[in-house]
Model the fold of this input.
Amino acid sequence: FTPASMEIHPTNAVERAYTIALILLGMMMFSTLISTITNTMNHLRQLNLARHGQESLVLRYISEARLSLELGNRIMKHLRRDETA
Done:
């Protein structure tokens, strides 16, 4: 899509080869961009999943050890503060 469309077409073999090469290069670059974004999102999801798993274990320990509500809240507050640092 261009703001002012122009009827430009390759007229010989060299121009056609150049056009094909640019299209393939653009597709490869776009695919690389999408792949990088996907891998980054998957990595962040794995980190978040691990963090939630660890938080779940701490909550279970607090519950099973019958710690006071105040102490449990202080532990969780400390853990959440360390995550943001």
About this structure: The CA atoms of residues 58 and 76 lie 8 Å apart. The helical segments are 13-64, 69-84. The radius of gyration is 27 Å.
